[in-house]
Write a structure and sequence with these properties.
Number of strands: 14
Mean pLDDT: 91
Helix content: 10-25%
Order of helices and strands: HEEEEEEEEEEEEEE
Structural class: mainly beta
Radius of gyration: 19 Å
Shape: globular
Length: 219
């Protein structure tokens, strides 16, 4: 076989392996919402409310939330090393909200559990907040003694206009958490503790919608 044919063969084989790897990675991704009901999720609010009075399954895999009462919706399963992709938009006036990572047992901060919050609050999207005693290595950017404690986003505002679908991509690996919002790298923390836990969405008064909440294990 000539060198040219051999090189072409190796090129084709390499392309096939890359395609197979991409397909396997895609196959490993799972939507955390099944599109039918809220199996695998639980709601914790103050005052207590039935889950179906706060969250509704809409067509095309969209999950709508009233945004109240205060609290959070969380997976029943815990996760450590993963890539999480999610999309959200404000269905009414933009307001306050967040994605809770590594939700763990422990003392609550009012209605908030031990967790790392990715802020989706309008105008502050990409900030990270250690909730109820959560910790990471990097110093906060908020003033000493301020509440809440905040590690502000690293880049300019990458949130889209109200009503448009925003996306967040989160990579968690052995205590390192990296955040991108609409394709812009916005935050990173290391030695995060706890390094694993449940995943959830805050309720802070503003209605919003979710879709394409996909998790890919990295173990």
């Amino acid at each position: 076989m000539s060198d040219r044919k051999m090189n072409r063969l190796w090129t084709m084989l390499g392309a096939a392996l890359l395609a197979a790897g991409a397909a396997a990675s895609q196959a490993a991704a799972a939507d955390l919402f099944n599109g039918k009901d809220f199996s695998g999720w639980e709601l914790q609010t103050t005052p207590a409310a039935p889950l179906d009075s706060v969250f509704t399954m809409l067509p095309d895999g969209v999950v709508a939330s009233t945004g109240q009462p205060s609290g959070f919706l969380a997976t029943t399963e815990s996760y450590r090393n993963y890539r999480l992709h999610l999309e959200w938009r404000w269905s009414g006036k933009p307001g306050n909200g967040g994605v809770l990572l590594h939700i763990s047992p422990g003392p609550m901060d009012r209605v908030w559990p031990v967790s790392l919050q990715l802020q989706t609050k309008h105008g502050s999207t990409g900030d990270l907040l250690p909730m109820a005693g959560y910790a990471f290595a990097e110093p906060p950017t908020s003033a000493a003694g301020a509440s809440p404690v905040i590690k502000a986003r690293m880049a300019g505002d990458s949130e889209l206009a109200a009503g448009q679908w925003n996306s967040a991509d989160i990579v968690s690996r052995d205590g390192t958490v990296e955040i991108s919002v609409n394709g812009v790298a916005q935050n990173k923390v290391t030695r995060a503790s706890p390094a694993s836990g449940r995943i959830g969405f805050q309720l802070e008064g503003a209605p919003y919608e979710l879709r394409r909440v996909n998790l890919t294990p990295l173990d």
